[in-house]
Amino acid sequence: MSKNWGSSGYSHHFIADYILSHFPDSLLQEIDDLKKTYEIFYSQKKLLSIDIQGVTYFFPTRYRENRWGWDGIIEGSPEAIAEIILQDLADYNFTTFNKRGRKITKRPIRLDKNIVCINCGAVGSIKRYFFGIPGTSKFAMNLAKDRFIIGRGRKKGDQEALCTRCDWTGSTEIYRFSKKKL
Questions:
Q1: Which residue blocks in 52-172 are alpha helix, DSSP H?
Q2: Who's near 88: CB < 8 A, 6+ residues apart?
Q3: Residue 174 lies in a domain
Q4: Domain of 18?
Q5: What is the count of structural domains for the chain?
C-alpha cells in the first residue's frame, strides 16, 4: 500500500460507508473540516472517527493505542481494513456483519504465559478448563496441553479458567482488552 493511501479522501470515505452498511443501527456523521472526518455513532455514543490520516477508537480494543494511521498499513484494500474495524467492534460486543452478511463473532482470547491473575497478581498461572477427556491423537494432546482437565462435559454456568495459585475461577472475557505490562 502506498504512503498516500488515504490522501485522496476516497479510501477513508469508503471505509466509513462500508462500516456503516455492515453495522446495524449505527449512524454516520460527516464533518466538513480540512481532513474530511467521518464519525460513527451507536446509541448517540461516538465509537469511531475516520479521517485522512487514520482511525481513532473511542472504545477499548486490543491495540495499545486508541488510534492507528493509514501510513502503518503495509497491504490490504479499504474493504479489508473496514473488515478489521468491524471485527474490533464485534470484539467489544457490537453486532456487525461481514461482506457475506454473516454475523461477525468475537476473536478467541489467548491466554499466554504473560497473563496476570486479577486476584493475586501471579504471572502465567491462568489456565483454561478442558472439559471432557482428551483423545490420544497428537491434535487432542496439543489441545489439552497447558489446560486444567475436567473429566466431564461442560455444563451451563461452568467457569472458563482458573488461577493455579489462588484458585480464582472466572471468565476469560476479562482478559480481552487487558493491557497490563510486566
A1: 78-91, 138-144
A2: 57, 61, 62
A3: yes
A4: 10-91
A5: 2
Q: Is 10 exposed, middle or buried (0-12, 13-18, 19+ CB in 10 A)?
A: exposed
98 within domain boundaries: no
Q: Which residues of 163-176 are buried (b: 16+ CB within 10 A; e: fewer)?
A: beeeebebebeebb
Grid cell digits, residue 164: 493455579
Phi, psi for 50 (deg, rounded to 5): -120, 125
Of 91, 117, 145, the position where a domain reaches its end is 91
Q: What is the pTM of this model?
A: 0.73
Q: Which residue has the cell 454475523?
A: 103
Residue 16, classed as helix, strand or coil, is: helix
> DSSP string of 105-119?
PPPPPP--TT-B-TT
CA dist., res. 143 & res. 65, Å (int): 32
Q: What is the pLDDT of residues 88-122, one digit of tens each?
A: 999 999 999 999 999 999 988 877 788 888 889 88
